[in-house]
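Need fresh eyes. Consider my entry:
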Amino acid sequence: MKTNITLVLACVLALNSAEANEKPASSLQSNLVATRNHYSQLIAGDAPNIAVLTLFTNMLPKGGDLHHHYSGAIYAETYLDWVGEQNYCIYRATDTQLKSEKFRIVSKPQELSEAARAVCINADAVRQDSLFYNELLKRWSDKDYDNHFHEQPAPDLQFFDTFGYFNAVSNYDYNKGLQSLKARAKTENLGYLETMLKGGPSIDKPEFETLLSTLDPSSSEQQIEKALLNAYDFLTSDADTSTKLNTYIKSLQDAATGIDDENFKVRFQAYVSRNNAPAKVFSSLYTSFAAAKDSKLVVGVNIVGPENRHVAMRDYSLHMKMFAFLKKRFPSVKLSLHAGELTLGMVPPEGLRSHIHEAVFVAGANRIGHGVDIAHETDAPELLNILKQRMVAIEVNLTSNAFILGVKNEAHPVQLYARHGVPFVISTDDAGVSRNNLSGEYLLYVRNYKPSYDELKHIVYNSIRYSFLPDDEKHDETEKLDKRFAEFEARIATLPRAIL
């Protein structure tokens, strides 16, 4: 009898538990359906409801931002604040005799001549001069570029030249900068940031540089392999390289202090500039790979910089072979490579045919940044199939692609990737320079391409699925994203619907 009572009680408890779980599940499904319907209304027709869609994408959980440059993410207004905090000054005029250049930062104004000091003003003076202040924002970012009616640089030069202006202050306080980016991320419902904070340190020694100085596009595979092996042996036994590597890792640890919490996480990609001499590129790549191996904060390695410039184009294949060489020695290191950030006319047609292919087949890239020239690659359908099979995700940066390359709307290959089943993520690139944020990137995506709500949600989850986090951390971040979507869909379900 006791057994029967126990059995009955167990059945009752199980039934009650099932009913309790059924109600939340039913509620979750109801909220999901309501969100689908609401979103479908917003994107319906030739003219989507942009105002309400903006609210939707602002509220939308974002998962992670995987293509993110720290220095390009800080807004010019913040950099100006940092100029003031360090008592730097900014030239308000160009004068060849004074060696002044308008909008340039001077970190040691006390060392200027009296005449030069007269044209170098502090941050407060910049803000008080509304005309100069607005001009500075336009030079340190892409602000109001389309509204200029005077002579101005080409879009790609405008974009990349901004870094030369604020670089003098961008390394002021990495932790402070990351705190500000964290605060912005939280307002956007973003939980994970994978940013490029600092490049791997390079080694400037004549005896090292000579090991790679003979390499050029005509070098044979054997010559390249021998030169890289000699350079690698030099770096692994060089005390100064070891010291620089340890200092680099320590600087990243200091930058990340206090950033992670239960709702937000930051990790770094080490990187190298593609427009330097081979010795500088290889040594910086070596320290980047070594840092990714030695520090849990460094989850991957990248290569950055304008892809269309002379050195980047000339040495592209050599750079990919450098990646392949180091990947053999650091097999666990993940790679996200800027590749295919090019268009017809920016470079000759031949320059569009192999960059993504080499990044995948030679370097072994796990993700591709930009990938805009995919349609011009040799045997593009087969390459797209390989990207799908290998699950090489594309980092789609709509705003910067539109500005730098002029590729936007129906010309952008994001729909080509989707058609071929290649995974992709939505990311910001340089939100401070572009004067945008991740919510704005999602708004562009849904406004221009009108994915279904389930497709949109899948792309958000891709930002965790294809992150370089370890599997256990991906699992944790996915669970957090599940919770965020449940909360998001519950809120959307309460919003007013369109008046039909």
About this structure: Residues 2-43 form the longest helix (42 residues). Confidence is low (pLDDT under 50) at residues 1-23. The first strand starts at residue 63 and ends at 69.
